Amino acid sequence: MVKTTCEIAKIKTACGICKKILVELGCMVEAGIATYDIEEKGEELIRKNGVVSAFRNYNGYPAGLCVSVNEEVVHGIPSKGKMLKEGDIVSIDIGVVYRGYCGDCADTFPVGKIQEIHKKLIEAARGSFYAGISAALPDLKVGDIGAAIENFVKSNNFSVVKEFAGHGIGKNLHEYPEVPNFGRSGTGEVLKEGMVLAIEPMINQHKAAVRILDDGWTVVTKDGGYAAHYENCVLIMKRGPEILTV
Ligand code: MF3
Ligand code: CO
């Protein structure tokens, strides 16, 4: 689970490209575009940056990125018929491979003017990530990160999705350890300098329960409340966590 200096260098490059593309895709979010327009632009940027999608064909996933709108939590499949409208919130999740190493990041964007509660939801997803990485230090444990995320989300009166988690990342998109967005401090795998973790809180406006649509991928809230997702890859270092998806 601990990466070498050379591996970290490649992961860093993958992560930098990943974030750069995510920011650009976030800027194109506006009412009237289809989620597939984001996919198309994403694939173009992936190509132009000399990387490939880490998602396409991963366990059979049929697109280059994930675009999840409103009550869709994660793994939304971009579609030509799914139009964005004012008031929507849209999470874009992108993973790329650079010279055999992966980067993975996600953020949730407003479409025009959105409800105040949805602004708070998006802010809480981001805030819970930062709460989580405050515990991303050598000799602490994976459960310390999860507990910090969960406490932050609960104190903001939102709920944490339990069925999906963050993960180690490297040659593979998903590596050990698994990094749940909930848990008990002092439990789980010990964190070590040189580990790279994708930390990705998925949080819901109302209840935590989710289900998967008939497409086999799209994760939605059971109660129809909105959801937000925020993800970065983080390198564990003694001096403190280093966000690689910058
Ligand atoms: N960031 C998500 C994850 O790590 C995206 C995976 S989409 C998949 O689970 F298609 F690759 F599964
Ligand atoms: Co991920």
Structural features, described:
- With 246 residues, this protein is an alpha+beta fold.
- It has a single domain (5-243), classed as Creatine Amidinohydrolase (Alpha-Beta Complex), CATH 3.90.230.
- The chain is 28% helix and 25% strand.
- It has four helices and 15 strands.
- The protein has helices spanning 5-27, 35-48, 116-133, 142-155; strands at residues 52-53, 66-69, 72-74, 89-98, 101-110, 159-160, 166-168, 175-179, 196-199, 202-204, 210-212, 219-221, 227-229, 232-235, 242-243.
- The strands form four sheets. A five-stranded antiparallel beta sheet has the order 8-7-9-14-15. Strands 1, 2, 4 and 5 form a four-stranded antiparallel beta sheet that branches.
- A hairpin with a 2-residue loop joins strand 4 (89-98) and strand 5.
- Helix 1 (5-27) crosses helix 2 (35-48) and helix 3 runs antiparallel to helix 4.
- The radius of gyration is 17 Å and the shape is globular.
- It starts with a helix and ends with a strand.
- The chain binds 2-amino-4-trifluoromethylsulfanyl-butyric acid and cobalt (II) ion.
- 2-amino-4-trifluoromethylsulfanyl-butyric acid is lined by residues 55, 58-59, 61, 66, 75, 93, 95, 104, 106, 167, 198, 200, 231.
